[in-house]
Design brief:
single chain; Arc Repressor Mutant, subunit A; three-stranded antiparallel sheet
């Protein structure tokens, strides 16, 4: 799991990729051209390159219909990252709650 977390953090370090993920979280599915419309400063090829990275990290799914490619979120590997972060911070959170309950914060 930590290997996937490292990959996920690396992929999501790019602000364009985070924006694409956010966009796809608001839409059920979009074609490349629909995604590219939200990034007028980028070429469609550049947007496609970001989508390839997201797809290889299993953060988005691709569906082909004829010559068109449609993208959506999934498969949900983000759960792995959330679980990793939870395991990292849970001990600190538990200690904070204990101090709060003891009145020592």
């Amino acid at each position: 799991m930590p290997d996937y977390a490292a990959l996920a953090f690396s992929v999501m370090a790019d602000p364009t990729r985070r924006s694409i993920l956010r966009l796809l979280s608001e839409e059920e599915e979009l074609p490349v051209t629909g995604i590219a419309q939200h990034f007028p400063e980028m070429t469609r090829a550049a947007v496609s390159s970001h989508l390839r990275v997201l797809r290889s990290a299993e953060m988005v799914s691709e569906r082909r219909r004829g010559q068109f490619r449609f993208y959506s979120l999934g498969p949900n590997r983000a759960d792995d990252v959330v679980q990793f972060l939870h395991s990292v911070y849970q001990r600190d959170l538990d200690a904070f709650v204990q101090r709060a309950e003891d009145g020592t914060t």
